[in-house]
Write a structure and sequence with these properties.
Layout: H1 2-52, H2 75-82, E1 94-99, E2 102-103, E3 109-115, E4 125-130, E5 135-140, E6 145-150, E7 156-165, E8 180-181, E9 185-189, E10 194-198, E11 202-203, E12 209-215, E13 225-230, E14 235-240, E15 245-250, E16 256-265, E17 278-279, E18 283-287, E19 294-298, E20 307-314, E21 324-329, E22 335-339, E23 344-350, E24 354-363, E25 376-377, E26 381-385
């Protein structure tokens, strides 16, 4: 009996120990799962916060704080300097530099003019002028350095020049009594290329497509975002503040055609966003339960040819259907051609300079872009043409009269 009770006691103790260890393992697992959940929640919150508050990531450019240079110096200083007697002749030299000289729109460049001599005890000024507008951006009546900050709201270039001269007046370039002139300096505010592509153009209902906006420059150092909009609904799909690409996934549960466009612009929620510096060509996606497909191709041609032959090819003969094959010019929105029978539709088009986008649809008869009730759309086809600037032929020399024979001397 003792041995039996002892064995039972030891068995019970082992069972209680095993149960206790199981409970400890369960508690440890629960704590681990809770910690993982907290971490995932934090990651999700951070990602959401970053999307919801882009102003915390990018600030609008502000003009630099300059220590010299003013567009309108005090009138008493102008009067006092005008009374200075002209001293012994001094060979002045002045240089002008821009930092940076290439930047994004709305960012500031600092122009710095440096004179070889102090203009303080003289009647002369160091000035910086906008070469195109003849507006003086800075006038400095003392020292050897004069600075100004410049910016532009959109992509452009501007040239600036510095002088050492008598007091410069807006609209008068060069100013009077010029002692030295700098070389012109050009500052460029650049844009960037932008394309929007999709991995599918016609899909079954509910199927997802991926849109990718791609820029030629990283927008990270800029005050701009890559933004993708559904222009059919007017809603923004996504935005990205860094890198050269931005991706959005779209899907529709009912038969429809939606148009999409990308912008490089300041943060905005409505299309088109204000201050956009680049805009993509529109991309179209059609959701349809019918399963029809259409493609668009261009016949081989020289890139300098003023015409191109386009062929839209459908997977169905549209003859016995209520649909047509339609080709449209995306640049102008004009209907190029329409075919009511067969599986292909051909058109020869005239091209302007650069790239012209075309697209094809299977849809009821329409000249709109996109046509209402479309059941399929093609890829966007970009057709390029380069104009060659040939030199003008030189005029042929005028024919010279033949010399007259000299009569013999008798």
């Amino acid at each position: 009996m003792k041995w039996t009770r002892r064995i039972e006691a030891e068995s019970g103790a082992r069972h209680r120990g095993l149960h206790s260890r199981r409970m400890n393992i369960s508690r440890t697992a629960a704590r681990l799962l809770l910690a993982i959940g907290v971490m995932l929640s934090a990651v999700f919150f951070c990602a959401y916060a970053a999307q919801a508050a882009p102003s915390q990531v990018k600030m609008a450019p502000t003009p630099p704080s300059l220590t010299s240079g003013t567009a309108a110096p005090p009138s008493d200083l102008v009067t006092a300097k005008a009374r200075h007697a002209v001293g012994p002749a001094v060979a002045y030299h002045v240089s002008l530099a821009a930092s940076p000289s290439s930047l994004w729109p709305t960012q500031y460049s600092t122009l710095t003019a440096r004179s070889s001599g102090d203009v303080g005890p003289t009647p002369y000024w160091i000035s910086i002028v906008d070469v195109a507008t003849h507006t003086y951006l800075a006038r400095c009546g003392s020292g050897t350095v004069c600075t100004a900050s410049v910016t532009r709201p959109s992509a452009t270039a501007a040239s600036y020049q510095a002088y050492v001269s008598a007091y410069p007046t807006d609209g008068i370039v060069p100013p009077g009594a010029v002692q030295a002139t700098s070389q012109p300096v050009t500052v460029s505010w650049h844009s960037t290329s932008l394309t929007l592509s999709t991995n599918a153009t016609t899909l079954p209902l509910g199927r997802a497509a991926t849109l990718v906006a791609t820029t030629g420059d990283d927008v990270g150092p800029s005050p701009f975002y890559i933004e993708i909009f559904d222009t059919t609904t007017g809603g923004r799909l996504t935005y990205c503040g860094f890198g050269t690409s931005c991706t959005a996934t779209v899907s529709q549960p009912t038969a429809t055609t939606h148009s999409f466009v990308a912008h490089v612009a300041p943060y905005g929620t409505t299309a088109p966003p204000a201050g956009a510096i680049a805009t993509s060509t529109t991309s179209y996606i059609t959701w349809s339960p019918l399963g029809h497909q259409i493609s668009l191709t261009v016949a081989p041609r020289s890139i300098i040819s003023p015409t191109a032959t386009l062929t839209a090819t459908s997977t169905i003969d549209v003859g016995p259907t209520p649909y047509f094959i339609e080709i449209l010019n995306q640049r102008t929105g004009a209907l190029v051609t329409i075919c009511g029978t067969g599986t292909s539709c051909v058109a020869t088009v005239s091209l302007g300079s650069g790239s012209t986008p075309f697209i094809a649809f299977i849809a009821p008869y329409s000249s709109a872009l996109p046509p209402a009730g479309a059941v399929a759309n093609s890829n966007r086809l970009e057709v390029n043409r380069i104009r060659l600037l040939l030199p003008r032929p030189r005029p042929l020399p005028l024919p010279q009269p033949l010399p007259q024979p000299v009569p013999p001397v008798r």
